[in-house]
Write a structure and sequence with these properties.
The protein is mainly α and about 120 residues long. The chain has one domain (about 5-115). The chain has helices spanning about 5-15, 30-35, 45-50, 65-80, 95-100, 105-110, 110-115.
Length: about 120
Amino acid sequence: FIVFTTIQIILISIVTPLFVLKENIRTSDDFAKLVTSSLFVDKTLLIKAWFEDKNFVLLTAPRRSGKSMLLSMLKHFLEIPVDERGTFMERNYSINYKLFKERSLNIFKEELFFNEHFGRYPVV
């Protein structure tokens, strides 16, 4: 029998292709755009799962199954907020903070984790 870790189960549910969508619906890999869509499914708890799982994660999936969107979600969560001049900003006033708060995303409800990790890491 096969034992799956939490991270594997989450990844399986994320990368399952969405064949139910109509062809004329445009998709995007930008988390900030997708989160405002009525089709958005909140998978932000994957961020916490990645931090808690000490193993490396290799994400492989078919085309158009959300891999780039997941990376965009991580970028919006982790990146240190700066203004247009490159000056560090208060995390609570950043566009990304508003994105997670106003949409009441699942990861925002995990207050301790959110406060410890949100906007604390340089992202390339």
